[in-house]
Amino acid sequence: MRRFLPLVLAIGLVAVVGILPGLRWLLWQWELNPVLRGRQLAEEQGCLSCHVPYRGTEIPNPNSRWGNVPRFQGGNFMMYGESRQDLEEFIRFGAPRAWLDDPAVAERLQTQRVRMPAYGDRLADDEISDLVAYASAMEGVDLAGGDTVAAGRKLARQHGCLSCHGVEGSGGLPNPDSLGGFIPGFVGRNFADLVENEAEFREWVLDGTSSRLAGNPIVRHFWQRQALSMPSYRDTLDDQQVTEIWKWVQELRRSTAAAG
Fold first, then answer.
1. What SS3 string covers the chain?
2. How confident is the model at residue 18, as a pLDDT?
C-alpha cells in the first residue's frame, strides 16, 4: 500500500484542485459573520467612499458639526454618539432621531455640504444590523467583553494581528493561492477547523504553524504556495500575553455565536 501512497495523494490533490472554486465558496460561507458581512455591505453601499477616505484624510464638510466627515477608526464617533443605538440611527435615518427632532439641528443638517444618506428604505433590518456591527468594530463601540478582554484586544492590535485577521478578528482579507483564497479570522467556522484547542492556538501564535495540519499533504501544498503565511511570535509574546489574546478570541467567538 505504501508504494501507491504518492499516487493516491496526487489523485486527491488533483481532485481538490478540480473542485477548488466550489470549496472556496463553501469556505467563504463558513467565514461570514456580522462584521465581515457589514464590511462587504459598506463597500457595496458606498460607505467607505466617505468614511475610509483616500490616504486617510478626512473629507471637509462645511456647516457640519465638526467641519468634516468622520473617518472610521479615527475615534471620532465619541463626538457624535455613545452607543450602537446611535450608530443604527445614523445608518437608518441619516442622523440620530434626537438631532432630526430638533428644528435648529435639522436645519443645519440641510446646509452641510456632505449629508449622510438614510439607508432605512434601502436595506433590510438584518443588513443594517451587520453595518452596525462593522461600524462598531471599526470605532470601538460596545465591543465584546469590554474591559474583561481589553488586554488581549490591545495586544492583538499592537502586534498587527488585525491587519491580517480583520477588524475584531472578522477575517476575509485576501490571501492569493491559499486554500480558501483569504486569511481566516477568529470568529467564523473555519477557525474551529484550524484551532482545536488553546494548545494549538499557542502553537499557531508562537510557531506560526500547526503540527497537526502540517502533516496533511493537501494543506501543505497550499501553505507552500500562498502569498501570506502566519509569522512566529515566540520571541515577541510571552505565555501570559498569549493567554490574554486567547481569552479575547474566545469572547469574540462567544458573542458572535450569541448574536447569530
1. CHHHHHHHHHHHHHHHHHCHHHHHHHHHHHHCCHHHHHHHHHHHCCHHHHHCCHHHCCCECCCCCCCECCCCCCCCHHHCCCCHHHHHHHHHHCCCHHHHCCHHHHHHHHHCCCCCCCCCCCCCHHHHHHHHHHHHHHHCCCCCCHHHHHHHHHHHHHCCHHHHHCHHHCCCEECCCCCCCEECCCCCHHHHHHCCCHHHHHHHHHHCCCHHHHCCHHHHHHHCCCCCCCCCCCCCCCHHHHHHHHHHHHHHHHHHHHHC
2. 66
Residue 5 C-beta-side C-alpha neighbours within 13 Å: 4
pLDDT at residue 55, rounded to an integer: 81
- In the structure grid, which three cell numbers stand for residue 33, read together? 459573520
Segments of the chain scoring below 50 in pLDDT: 1-5, 7-8
Handedness of CA 145, 147, 152, 154 (dihedral sign): positive
Q: Give the Cα separation of 211 and 180 in Å (integer).
A: 20
Torsion of Cα atoms, 165 then 169 then 174 then 179, to 10°? 80
The reported pLDDT for the residue numbered 7 is 46
**Gyration radius of the chain's alpha carbons:** 22
Domains of the chain: 7-32+144-260 (1.10.760.10)
Is the pTM of the predicted complex or chain greater than 0.85?
A: yes
